[in-house]
Backbone:
């Protein structure tokens, strides 16, 4: 597998766009009442939308990890949230945090700082005015907690 330092511009762009797809799929899944799995929401999305074959494997990889580790991911996020409850966050912020957390905790080929930066970009594009700083703070705290345990 190609390491993060070896990804070319096109591959980095595909990963960024894959994250935007993950955000849309997570939003759909939550809008449908969190019924079923994120992979099921991906399948329903693919039935009506076209995701590039270059992006789909990463979308599928991260959503699979999110389905497999949802309890652990949400627990890690709850531990990193200060004076906030995960279920009270804006849906977009929650989705961005989950994507970033999965990449930090379970996707070895993505450096944690890249995962945080990409989550900030998603928050800038799709969240509220305070979302980028909030996402940065929460994911940085999550990363520091995870690093301290390692």
Residues:
């Amino acid at each position: 597998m190609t390491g993060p330092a070896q990804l070319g511009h096109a591959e980095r762009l595909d990963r960024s766009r894959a994250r935007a797809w993950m955000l849309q799929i997570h939003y759909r899944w939550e809008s449908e009442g969190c019924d079923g799995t994120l992979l099921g929401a991906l399948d329903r999305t693919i039935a009506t939308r076209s995701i590039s074959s270059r992006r789909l494997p990463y979308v599928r990889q991260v959503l699979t990890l999110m389905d497999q580790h949802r309890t652990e991911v949400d627990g890690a996020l709850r531990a990193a949230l200060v004076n906030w409850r995960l279920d009270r966050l804006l849906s977009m912020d929650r989705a961005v945090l989950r994507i970033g957390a999965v990449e930090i905790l379970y996707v070895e080929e993505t450096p944690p700082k890249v995962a945080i930066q990409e989550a900030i970009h998603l928050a800038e594009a799709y969240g509220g005015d305070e979302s980028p700083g909030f996402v940065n703070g929460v994911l940085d705290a999550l990363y520091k907690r995870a690093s301290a345990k390692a």
About this structure: The domain at 4-149 is CATH 1.10.940.10 (N-utilizing Substance Protein B Homolog; Chain A). The mean pLDDT is 92. The chain has one domain: 4-149. The chain has seven helices and no strands.
